[in-house]
Amino acid sequence: MPATEFTPLASLAGGALIGASAVLLLLVSGRIAGISGIVRRLFPPYGASAPLEAAAFLAGLIAAPFAWTLATGEAVRQSVTESLSLAVVAGLLVGAGVFAARGCTSGHGVCGLARLSRRSIAATGVFMATAVVTVYIVRHVVGGWPWA
Fold it and tell me: Are the beta carbons of 95 and 104 closer than 8 angstroms?
């Protein structure tokens, strides 16, 4: 099983940037920076609700790794799985969770917790508990990630 990298400074910087962008979006537009809600604003019937703002936000998410590579000369390396079927199943499960929680981890975990929303506290608790149980089962019951 591969070792988990601990990157406290990079994590702190990333968290600070996420928090700053969420605050900026709230100050500028009065909207919560939940990715699922932003994506939803690109499609009918929600498309009339700031589609250019939503498209710009998503373009920034997509452009960020390229900007990092241009600025530092280092490629962004992110590896989850090489299995397309596993990625599709995982994406469907995440989508089902977003639908059930009526929002995503960024909306509930970043913005909702900051506003002390009871619904977001409950949703984030469920997200985190599910993650803890999943990692425990995979590492200690199954014996490792089957695709690692």
Answer: no
Helix (H, G, I), strand (E, B) or coil at 77: coil
Dihedral Cα 98, 55, 86, 102, nearest 10 deg: 0
Instruction: Provide the residue ranges of all domains of the chain, joining segments of one domain with +.
Output: 8-142
Q: Work out the angle at residue 101's Cα, subtended by the Cα atoms of residues 146 and 26, and round it to the nearest 5 degrees.
A: 110
Helices (H), the chain: 8-29, 35-40, 51-72, 84-101, 105, 113-114, 118-136
CA pseudo-torsion sign 91, 128, 79, 25: positive
Token pair belonging to 7: 């990157």
Residue-level pLDDT, tens digit, the chain, 148 residues: 456 677 889 889 988 988 898 888 888 888 888 888 888 878 777 666 667 878 888 898 889 889 989 999 988 877 777 777 878 888 888 888 888 888 888 888 888 888 899 999 999 999 899 889 988 887 788 776 665 5
State the Cα–Cα distance between residues 92 and 123, nearest whole angstrom. Answer: 18
This prediction's pTM? 0.67
The residue among 132, 111, 67, 70 whose CA lies nearest residue 103 is: 111
